[in-house]
Amino acid sequence: MAEARAAAAEHGAVDAVSVLETWLSALGLIGVAGTPVPSVHTLQTWVTIPWTPDTVFGSAPPFTYAVSSPRTDIAFVQQRFGGTVDVITPLTTNQLLRPDPSDATKFQINLSLRIVYPALPGSPDKLAGTGKLPVVLLNHGHHHSWDFSVDASGTSVTGIAVKPSYTGYAYLQDALAQHGIVSASVDHNFACATKSLIETRADTIIAALDVLFNEDAAATSRYSGRLDFTKIGLMGHSRGGDAVVRAVKKIGASVSLLFKYTVKAVCSLAPTDVTGGGVAANRMALAQDDLLCYQVVYGALDGDVIGDGFDSAFGTGFRHYDRAQCPKTMAFLDACCHNAFNTVWFADGNDSSDPRLASQTDHQKIAVDYIGDLFRWQLNGEKRAQTLDGRAPNSAGQHASQQWIFGQRVKKIDDFETAGTNLLGGARTLVSGSAPTTIETFGTQTIGSTPLEMHTAHQTQVLHCDVTTAPPATRVLATAIPAGSADWSAFDTLLVSLSGWFDPTSDATIAGANLPRLTITLSDTASASASVDWTVYGATLPSRPVFKTDGPNNLTLMRLETIPIALSSFSGVDLTKVGQVAFDVKSDNAAHVFVDNLHVVQRS
Amino acid sequence: MDEPTATAMTFAPPDAYAPDGSWALEVTVQGTGFVERSLGLMALVGDVPVQYIMPVLDGAGFTGFLATAPNEGDALRFGYGAPNITTTLEYHAPTV
Q1: Does B72 touch chain A (CB under 8 A)?
Q2: What is the Cα A196 distance to its own chain's centre?
Q3: What angle do CA A256, A240, A258 make, to 5 degrees?
Q4: N or C: which end of chain B has fewer CB within 10 A?
Q5: Cα separation of A107 and A104, whole Å?
Q6: Is the pLDDT confidence value at A434 over 60?
Q7: Residues B29/B89, Cβ–Cβ less than 8 Å
Q8: b/e for A441-452, b at 16 or more Cβ within 10 A?
Q9: What span, in angstroms and rounded, lies between the C-alpha atoms of A583 and B76?
Q10: Domain coordinates in residue numbering, chain A
Q11: CATH of the domain at B83
Q12: What angle do CA B35, A278, B63 make, to 5 degrees?
């Protein structure tokens, strides 16, 4: 409890102690003697999960993601794994897969869940308290799983090494339990063994929910009546981070699943994006009402999901973030990699040996901060949004470039995806006679002789102002606010996402580049106006990219960073009658200025 | 990460347990240094993509399916996330 008080106070929670005690009481977790401690329970259940082969292929963008029919026949498993070498016997002997007892032509998987829940000291087999507790599923991605050894003749399996990747988030599970959240880390080894991209993984997530649902319904289960399926969170790491989005879409498309499960928040941790390299119509995207909040956490030093081109086959979490229409947040950590968030993967060998890399301990702190705060906020109703919008730093002291669009109220003004008008239907005018200004896909542009394709992972259109030559005038854009959207009095913060071009050749050239300088002017319908520039929103913003190479390839990424500006900064403007937003560039600051996501919010 | 190496490539008609689709060939590539990572293997023989890639049982190679036959002499390219490792392994149509 003392640690929780300190953490709450650190994050600026108002009246931290009373808030903490209020929700713990509501969950039935206090008023009982003793402080809840995490208790671990591994549950194994034979389930039917089809093997649904999926693939991504092509020689150049756009790539094709394809899904084959789900297969439940054991003969398919035998042929695709082993051909003429018997694999069913060793899989069955090792209790990994078996013929379905009710139909031997079909197979079942032994699904393991590592469940951690709050318990009272001395009573580890009983969930603490009496109320229903939120549920979070943690889903690892691709790694060693069922590694077959064969004899010298290649005709017989001599053993199967099983990798317990699902045990690698114990630190996060403990942190969640300490805040009254039940978490289940799901064993995705079947999906890994079958080389699933996302489809079988998504089915495994739903199967895991079903297992927990049945436990909640079973009178003799320790979970009986204690799991709140109206407060579900999903976290996925790597391909798991791609699959959790697929799971949300599958649940949303099924009336029966929607009746059972309400997923409120999802975190994609260092995810792939296997549909995002395809044509726009085929890219998987979260809709406005799919979630209360979507989060991406990704490291700039990731040596696995390396970010090899904005239009690459496997992509990064930037694309997931850019496509999501629901409230969202993304933390891009300067010193984080891929494997260090999972203790099992880290022990097998890290994906990066960069000397700038944060420690494993710091990776865990970062996961607890960002992912823990997401679920504590969305599932417990705690005031934890400060981590997700940059008001509070992470406890590791590691720099994060943050993007976010969420709040108690959100009014989206412009995402520059629609020609001629903003999202409110107001005219967007690129002012002639100023710096050359275009609206284009971020990654398709060329700066000098350098294509941006490998130097941004974003999949979004941006406003691009080329200020490398001093323009005769500074005004580059004016966007009209229609009368029906003119009242901003309920909002408190203007958001704008900003990036620049930082010559990626070296740390020195990155450091030597001019920062993009943008002035934002609000005008009301009575022609009063006020301007805010970098001297107000931050002279060191946006933060500079992290120099990164992968072999001979320079993969330094330009990234959009959300700049929040208090609306109170626009002195003298009647916020009930906002008529226009305008952008000006600094004429004597040679730079490229990239702008996206102009919105207003009432902060959470 | 170190790159894998492909040492041999053979082709056969697709078996009865192929994924959905119309397949001309199933390819088997043998090699060393294959790893398990987030970015999946991608491969091309000439301009023909290899789909539904699966590792062989001992992990020393992979199999996959081709929707059309490559051109005579087309070489294998493969890699994690992109087929950027070139090889000298070539497709040769079976002689009748």
Answers
A1: no
A2: 20
A3: 15
A4: C
A5: 7
A6: yes
A7: yes
A8: bbbebebeeeeb
A9: 51
A10: 38-44+112-152+161-406, 411-602
A11: 2.60.40
A12: 35
Q: Output the six-digit token pair for A235.
A: 């976290």
- First-to-last C-alpha distance (Å) of chain B: 42
Question: Which string of b and e fits A383-416 if b means at least 16 CB within 10 Å?
Answer: bbbbbbbbebebebebbbbbbbbbbeebbbbbbb
Range of the domain at B26: 5-90
Closest-CA distance, B24 to chain A, in angstroms, reads 16
| Token pair for A577 | 């009658």
The CATH class given to the A411-602 domain equals: mainly beta
**B96 lies in some domain:** no
For domain A38-44+112-152+161-406, the CATH architecture is 3-Layer(aba) Sandwich (3.40)
Residue with tokens 């009710």: A102
pTM summary value? 0.95
Q: How far apart are CA A541 and CA A264, in angstroms?
A: 32
**Residue B34: closest C-alpha in chain A:** A144
User: What pLDDT is attached to residue A423?
Assistant: 98
Taking CA atoms, A585 is separated from A533, A580, A593, in Å, by 10, 17, 8
Chain B residues inside the 8 Å CB shell of A142: 36-38, 40
- Number of domains into which chain B is organized: 1
Q: Are A433 and A561 in contact (CB under 8 A)?
A: no
Tell me the pLDDT of chain B averaged across its residues: 94
Q: What's the mean pLDDT in A526-537?
A: 98
For chain A, say whether B14 makes contact (Cβ under 8 Å).
Answer: no
Question: In sequence order, what are the beta bridge partners of A440?
Answer: A462
State the amino acid at position A576 in one-letter form.
T
Q: A143 vs B36: CB contact, 8 Å cut-off?
A: yes
Residue B95 located in a structural domain: no
> Inter-chain contact A312–B50, Cβ cutoff 8 Å?
no
Domains A38-44+112-152+161-406 and A411-602 share a fold: no
Say if A264 is an interface residue toward chain B (CB within 8 Å): no
Distances (CA, A) of A203 to A206, A570, B63: 5, 50, 24
- C-alpha span between A576 and A573 (Å, rounded): 9
- Arithmetic mean of pLDDT over chain A: 94
